[in-house]
């Protein structure tokens, strides 16, 4: 190869890479990402930060490495400790770090989860003995409605299942948060079911609550009888509090590989209206699910005694 020909070929290759979008550097800047770190189902906040210097090449792991003291295993693929708190066994129960992106559980490790910009990333150190997989949570509101999940935006559909005025309230809260609502319930939509449990509970995704937290990822269920009442579960999946008939619930779950389904429900129409009033950052932030009764919010799971 001649001396002049080498630089020419190199320049041509660089040009082709640029056109193809491959690039040799860290990639283009992305929209700022929010990082939250908590303990015990969001009860104790350790860190909250908006990180603006995010690149296309960044992953959830790399973002965490730049913001907190961490330890990892398997060549840096998985997190074992954040700010000195490591996974452990306590009293026969297992505790570890788990993370959500836009309120949806990841099916890949943090090092393999590439960022797309604008995500809300939430790491929580919790007891996972009774519910290892919690597929969706409400604590990153208004995500996933604004940014979707796994790098894809999805239509958002409110399904009114006898919810009356609560349906309009839910639509209003979503629109105020900047969410564009789809007409009907298109395929691939993130659904919000609004109505009394007697109706909502017939939906296959919502019906998972009847099988316990290990199945649904929701630490709540509705007791049987002619007038079902909301029951709050503790970390072990046992009933820890029985609410009255006016109690409402906002929770999220996911069935198989379908998009998340949010539930705005309760035993009575008044309870559904109360649940609709929970749709705000102030009331949902850092919570897996939330119950409300007589104006008092109770994050779920209920703390174990």
What does this protein look like?
By secondary structure, this protein is α+β, with helices and mostly antiparallel strands. It has 7 helices and 18 strands. A hairpin with a 4-residue loop joins strand 1 (33-39) and strand 2 (44-51). It is globular. The termini are far apart.
Short structural description:
This protein is an alpha+beta fold and 305 residues long.
Unreliable residue stretches: 1-25
Q: What structural category characterises the helix and strand content? A: alpha+beta
* Overall pLDDT level: 90
Radius of gyration: 22 Å
Write down the overall geometry: globular
Please give the count of helices. 7
| Largest beta-sheet details | 6 strands, mixed
Which percent band covers the strand fraction? 25-35%
Count every beta strand, where a strand is a DSSP E run of 2 or more residues: 18
Report the span from N to C terminus. Answer: 77 Å
Topology order in helix (H) and strand (E) letters:
HEEHEEEEEEEEHEHHEEEEEHHEE
Q: How much helical structure, as a percent, in the residues? A: 10-25%
């Amino acid at each position: 190869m001649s001396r002049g020909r080498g630089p020419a070929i190199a320049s041509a290759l660089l040009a082709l890479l640029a056109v193809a979008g491959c690039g040799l550097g860290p990639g283009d800047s992305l929209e700022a990402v929010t990082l939250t770190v908590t303990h015990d189902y969001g009860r104790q906040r350790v860190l909250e930060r908006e990180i603006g210097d995010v690149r296309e090449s960044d992953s959830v792991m790399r973002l965490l490495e730049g913001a907190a003291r961490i330890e990892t295993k398997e060549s840096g693929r998985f997190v074992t400790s954040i700010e000195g708190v490591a996974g452990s066994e306590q009293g026969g129960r297992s505790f570890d770090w788990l993370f959500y992106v836009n309120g949806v559980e990841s099916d890949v490790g943090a090092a393999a989860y590439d960022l797309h910009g604008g995500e809300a990333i939430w790491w929580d150190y919790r007891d996972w003995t009774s519910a290892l997989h919690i597929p969706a949570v409400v604590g990153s509101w208004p995500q996933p409605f604004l940014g979707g999940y796994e790098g894809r935006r999805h239509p958002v559909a409110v399904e009114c299942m006898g919810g009356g005025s609560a349906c309009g309230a839910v639509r209003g809260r979503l629109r105020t948060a900047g969410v564009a609502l789809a007409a009907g319930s298109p395929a691939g939509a993130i659904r919000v079911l609004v109505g009394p449990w007697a109706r909502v509970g017939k939906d296959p995704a919502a019906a998972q609550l009847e099988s316990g937290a290990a199945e649904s990822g929701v630490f709540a269920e509705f007791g049987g009888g002619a007038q079902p009442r909301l029951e709050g579960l503790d970390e072990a999946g046992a009933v820890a509090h029985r609410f009255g008939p006016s109690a409402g619930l906002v929770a999220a779950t996911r069935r198989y590989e379908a998009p998340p389904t949010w539930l705005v429900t309760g035993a009575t129409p008044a309870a559904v209206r109360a649940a609709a009033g929970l749709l705000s950052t102030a009331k949902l932030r850092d919570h897996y699910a939330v119950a409300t009764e007589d104006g008092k919010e109770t994050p779920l799971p209920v703390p174990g005694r």
